[in-house]
Structures are given as structure tokens and as C-alpha cells.
Specification:
single chain, mainly alpha, two-stranded antiparallel ribbon
Length: 694
Amino acid sequence: MDVDLQGIIQCIKQGDENGVQTQLQDFNKEYAQCFFFDAEERDRRKQRKLEEFRKNKVRDYIDSDSDGDEYEHQDRGLILRQNLAVVLVRFIRAGVKSRLLRVSLRTLRILSRDKKVLGPLVTDNALLTLAKIAGLTTTDATDESTDPDSDFYDNIIASLAEAKVFHSHTDEDEGDAGANDQSDECFDEDAKSDISNANSGDQDSISGLGSHRTSINEMHRGGLHHKVLERGKRDRRESKVDGDEEEEGGGVSGEEAQRKEAMKVLCNVVYNSTWAQERFSALRLMCGLTERLSSSVSGSSPSSVQFYELRLMFLITALRRELSTQLQQEGGVSILTAALEGCLDVQWKEQYECVLDPAAPPISLEASQCVIEILKILFNITYSTHRQEPSEDDAALYRHLVAILRLCLMKKCLLADDTDELQGHTVNLLSALPLQCLDVLLVVPLAPGSEQCEGVNMDCVHTLVMFMERRLESGEKMKEKLTPILNLLTESCRAHKETRHYIRKHILPPLRDASHRPEEGSTVKSRLIRLMTNLDTDLKYCAADLIFVLCKENVSRFVKYTGYGNAAGLLATRGLLGGQGPRPITTDVQYSSDSDSDTEEYRQVKDRINPVTGRVEVEVPDPMEGMTEDEKEEEARRLIMLFNKLSRDSIIQPMGVDSEGKLVSISGLMENALTDERKSDSDNDGEAEDGEKN
């Protein structure tokens, strides 16, 4: 479906708003869920070629006469969409009725998904126009064009005709070869700027780029980096929260619907264009976004517009580090905490204790999605505070936030997937906050049915452990999903002995059965020990560190529960392979001196446990039984020769443990030993000479 751009322009010139609205609605309906115009055309072309191949049984693509036509169709479609974006930005800037404005914004939202059409949408005028409709600023976009509207639209139509002639001449001169030389993934960069070349008669008015026209045109020819949305991936929040609102407004006010559509366009543009991110910062639109969020905090319930405001804030704080810092310095934590409190309708029982009513309804769809966005923004602006010592005021603010985060962990959402996602982002944020502020999670008084350890409420810790188990069982994106919860539990165990005792009873119960390897089975301990030999370094050390801390960083106890083979990686990293006493990671960690008492079942088989595998091995006959001493010596020489050959060919590298308990090559150990021996001999010679002189 080609855009009838000339028909749209004629309707605009004639003041036929109904005609404009009808044609834009047709476009919106056709491309509602299309994210890659060029990719979609490319897929269709490949499918047609595949069908042609199957029909003719000959894979002869070069001689196909359809390639040039398809590329010409693609280029023409791209030019039409670029010009449609230019026309619509100019059109909505002039001011249109509410319903037509909403339809026009929806068209711009669809166009903003195509990274090749971003040029007209990343100018200051376009950004300010969208920001004003979204309520982020009251500044009017300056219209730098001095031509009447009729001339502007006439020039657009003329540019389309010139571009069509240009492509016709190109095809006559170059034939199909030029089309075949283009990459399947990206068209030639010069071809993408053909519209500006064809518009040389009146570039300023046609491009709508104002004072930034040259620099943006240059970036549009390939200097601008874009991020890519997945083809056909529709935002599930939009489908759940908005419902059938797309066409009729869903009962929301006209102004709110306009603001939401403008927010969606800004989200797409900021996500896809680094230039738009820079201009967003330069135009200080972040201030307007913060003010909007502050004013909406007092609202009774989160609106669908607030979700997109939060989504835009998340994108800009994730993509622009200086804006994340700016938001933190301007009180972003307190603003977002207040917004979080409003979304959850928090009621306070004590200073750092929220009322948790088991009979309360689950968190609504809109509220849960807004809460998730708030947590993501808070992580962006606080992730560097974990190792910092907060001031007294900041500590009080973080403790207030942690109390609300406890509520996020304990409450349920309408959908199980939303509950899991909410808890995941809560864990991410908890792992970013100062460790000393997390004690709020444990200060809640005990209630009937509460999990407890030594008189301390463990409901929150129990929820975290259950969350970790679900992530272990899912087996998807293990590093991204597991490392935050593993790190959080590890740090909590180091800081609070009650937490460590409770988690240890759950993960490392007393050893009774030593007939299986520690990594075998479906228990939490077995799954964690299997992760200790994972190919991903970060993941395996996070899992090993948690078990090591549960063993109070005691090497012998760690090996007892995991087996020396599984424990070797962490012990080598810490320089503990030699079996020395524990080397604390932080000087503040002080473990109690209680011993790890063995069970009766473990004591009975303790002497028969293989320390490497961590289990009782089946007795096997001695392979050297019945061999003479000469045969044993011959077998030993043969093995030595094999090891030497493997070492010379760099297939294996014999390793040993140095005096610090670290793994080093045998050659390095021998060199160090020779050096020490020479040094010792020289010292002895010096002492002898001194004795003779005396």
C-alpha cells in the first residue's frame, strides 16, 4: 500500500479535514503492527523468489526482472514516508482539531518506528512541537519557513515528481546491476539522501529541518546511530492497558489521548536516535518531564499517560548518563519514591513499616506497569550508590524507599508474569541501594504464620529465596536473571547473621547422604553447585560466593559441601587452593564461632568420601595389582613421556600451587624454587665469608 501523499496534501490545501483523517486512518490500519517497512518488503521479496525457485527448479535470481522494480518500489515507499513525516509535522504545528490531531500523531508514531524516516522528527521544531502536545513544555516551535503553506505543499509534490524521474534515469543508466549491488540489509547511503538532492530547489521549506538541516542531513546519510526495535513486537503493556482505545479513545479525554500519542512518538524517536537524545538534553525537556511526573503524583490513580511519561524518563536516563545524574541531583529519588507510594496506595504503620493487608486486592494492571517503570528509573539513578556511605538524610530516604520495596516484594499482581517481573526489578533496585539501609526488610514485627529465625521476621527473605528458586528452575537468561538475586542474598548473608542462618537451613541442610555428587539432583543446593562450573564467569562466581558465605568463608566446610572439583575455581581466585584459613573479602565481616556439626550418617562414611567429587566412590580394583616392580616403573616412565609430549605440544599445562595458594605453572614453580635456592646459597656463602673474616 503506497501512501497517497498527493491526495493528503490536496485535502490539506482544500481544508478537507475529513479527507485527511480518512486517508491517515487507512494508513494507520494498514501499518498498525508494522515495525520494519523495508524489512517487511525484503521478506516479501525473498518469499516471492523462493516460490519462483520452487516453481522453476532453477535458482537464477540475477536474471529476474523484478529486482529493479522491487528496489524502485522500496525507494519510492521510503521517499513517500519521509515526505509524509515532513508534511505531518508541519500540519500539526499549525494546529488541528483534537480527533484529527490524534490520528496524525498515531501516523507519526508508526513512521517513527522506521529509522530511515527519523530525519524530520529529530529537528528542534519537531521535538518542541511533540513536547508541547505531550505537556512537557509551553515553548512554541519556531517556524523558520517564510513560504506560504501552498508553496510548501506544492514543493513537496514537485519533489516527488523529480524523485520519480531521478529513479527512472538511474534505472535506465545502471539497469538492474545497481539494484543487485545493494546490500540486503541496508540500501546505499547516498540513495537514502536522494530526496534532499531532488529537493534542491527549496531544501529549507521541504525538509523542515530549519537551522539544523545540514547536520541532520549528514547524520541521516549514515553518521547517526540507531537502535532497532524487533519486527512485529507490540508492546504488551499497550495491549493490556489500552485495550481497544486505539480507534475511539477508550473513554479517556481528548487531551489525554493526544498527550499519550505524542509521548509514544517521543519514546520511539528518543530510543532510535542518538541525535534526538542529545537535543532532548539540550532543549531541557527533562525538566518538563520531571515537573509532569511531580504534578501527577497527587493523582488518585496512575493513568495510561503516566506510564508513557515514565517510559520516556526510563529511556532517557538509560541512554544519557548526564540526564540520569541530573535527575538524581534534582531530587529524583524522592519524586519517584512519592510516585511509587501513590501507585501502590501505601499506608504507613510505623516509620519504616507499610501496612500489608493479606485481604487487599492485587495490584492493578496500570499500577503494576507504572511501578515497574519507576523501579527501572530508580535503578538508573541509584546503581552507583551501593558501595557509597550515604549521608544521614540520604540514608533516611533510602530506608523509606526500602520499606516500600518490601511491599513490592510481598504483594501480588493480577497476572503471575507481572508479579515475577515486579519482583525482579525490585531485586535489581535493592542490590543497587546502600547495604546498611536494607535492614528495614527485617525490622517488621512477627505476625501469626510469619517465617522467622531467632525472633527476626524472615518473610521478605523467604520471598527472595523463593524468587531465586523460580529463576533457577526457569533456566532462561540465567546470567541476567540470577546474578542480581545471588548478589543480593550474598551481601545480606554477610551483613545479617539471622539471614545467613535462615538461608543456610534452606540451601545447605546438614549432610546426610553422601552417595551422590553434590551437583547431582534437583535441590537448590545441587542447582547452585552446577552453576559453579558454568561457562559464564560472572554467574559461576556469584553462585560459588553465595555458598562460600553460607559456609562462613571456611575452606574445609566449603569443600565438604561442594567437592574440591567444584570449589577449585573460587578457591583459585581467592588464593585458597592450598587450604589456608579464610581470607575475608571485607574487614567488616565477622562470623560467629559456632561449629558445623556433622550428622551421624555423614560421620559413618566421612573417611570414604572422595574430597574431589564430594561423594563415596565405588571401590575399584587396583590397576597395578599383580604387576612387578619393573612393570610399575615402566608404566610410570610411559606416563611421564605422555605427559611431557602433551605439555610440549601445549595441549595441557601442568599446574601447581604456590606458597600463596594460587595456581601457577610447574615451570614457574621450578624457576621460583631455583631462584630461592640460589638466593639461599648466596646468603650462606656471605655468612661463611663473614665468619672467616671474624
